[in-house]
């Protein structure tokens, strides 16, 4: 009886360990790591497309996963994290039950009352500066969850960034992460760059981006 109990306890511990283990995944494209689960949070790193990443778990009601990549920990958008499902790589978020991905919750850092008030004011100001939510999400990148995503165009001439910095336009916030190849909704205004016919610019989710004639992001200034 004692042996049976010990064996059962060990089996239960093994199952608990398996359920709480990290899930290995790949970044389908160059992917931001943010300090929290949402585009309103600061970008703290970037995972190059095709690199392996540890997924600690995903929020059950939102398409964001807690990850660790080398020395960086944070949150990444689940549509662009892929794991092996059968014989193919599939997006991790819609397949999280099949992959037994842990469910996690986001706990905002604790701050003192005075600091919380100050941060709330700063957050409101930052939100106002960041722009309003525009109807429609960023278009998904076809194939980004199964491959290395869409390659970013070569770095534009420095004069392009100089012009963008000197001519800031109204920024916008869109649902979904800013990645190369994502489509920009028709109701988002794009702005011309002198002597550049191939792309325009706009600031989305806090990052200036260049957008091609097909309204897909071709370059991100990080």
From TrEMBL:
Keywords: Signal. InterPro entries: DUF1236, SH3-like_bac-type. SMART domains: SH3b (SM00287). Residues 21-85 form the SH3b domain. The keyword S-adenosyl-L-methionine does not apply. Residues 1-21 form the signal peptide. This is DUF1236 domain-containing protein. It comes from Paracoccus suum.
